[in-house]
Amino acid sequence: RVRTPRGAKFIASSVGAEHCCIISDDQKLYGWGKKSNGRIGRMDGGKSTGSRVTIPKQIKIPSDSNDYDGNDGVDGNDGVDGVDGSKKNNNNENVTAVSCGQKHTGCISNSRLYMFGNNEAGQLGLNNLSATSLPTTPPALLNVTIASVSCGVNHSCAVSRLGECWSWGWGENGRLGLGDESKRLEPCLVEALKDD
Fold first, then answer.
1. How far apart are CA 56 and CA 130, in angstroms?
2. How confident is the model at residue 2, as a pLDDT?
3. What DSSP designation does 145 have?
4. What phi, psi does 174 have (nearest 5°)?
5. DSSP assignment of 37-58
6. What does each C-alpha distance from 124 to 13, 72, 82 come to in angstroms?
7. In what order do the strands lie in the sheet with 155-160?
8. Cα–Cα nearest to 102, from 161, 164, 11, 19
9. How many CB atoms lie within 10 A of CB 73?
10. Long-range contacts of residues 11-20, Cβ cutoff 8 Å, at least 24 apart
């Protein structure tokens, strides 16, 4: 059973290849399914069995990278509890959007983009190819107010509140809209969509 405030309803959902995420009306993010590569983030509570989470668990969105104890969640300790078993405090859970890609996830909390999961093609936008279970803001978008996010197989796209389109990850077949088929490890402004 998932611990949610009494009477909570769910307002949005997204499905990846082997994981699902939902947002509650109190703007918390929950996920379940295959947890390899961190695609369902760092979690709190619920039942976790090996490489999968069989019932929904809350995904913790960090205020900063110091909110966690450094555990990546792969060995059963999901990195949210302190050494003494106490929960880490987090005031950043105002999730308004979520998108599940094939093996990665993006969400928006307080108008900031957070990415986590597989990163074999740079689809997290973190300027590297390392997977992470820690929801992390792409450095190129730290000062950009994000309105929407969409995650594909190995690429991602976000739209800012100013109407700018950013894309990154695997560029095959021109899927990034950047005029070529190159891989991008960080978000790039889609220049063809800019006002002149």
1. 25
2. 55
3. -
4. 75, 20
5. GGTT-SEESS-EETTEEEEEEE
6. 20, 16, 27
7. 146-151, 155-160, 165-169, 184-189
8. 19
9. 20
10. 12/97, 12/98, 13/98, 14/98, 14/99, 14/100, 14/105, 15/100, 16/100, 16/101, 16/102, 16/103, 16/104, 16/105, 16/151, 17/102, 17/103, 18/103, 19/100, 19/105, 20/100
Name the average pLDDT for the chain: 83
Read off the pLDDT of residues 17-52 as tens digits, 9 standing for 90 and up. 999 999 999 999 999 999 888 898 876 544 445 688
Which tokens hold the place of 107? 């969400």
In DSSP terms, 97 is beta-bridged to 108
With residue 114 as reference, give the H or E element that holds it.
strand 112-117
Query: Which tokens in the block code for residue 105?
Result: 């996830």
Distance of CA 123 to the CA centre of its chain: 11
> Which tokens is 177 given?
């809209």
How many residues are recorded in the chain? 196
Least confident of 90-94, 120-124, 139-143: 90-94
d(C-alpha 4, C-alpha 55), whole Å: 13
Assigned token pair, 184: 């991008």
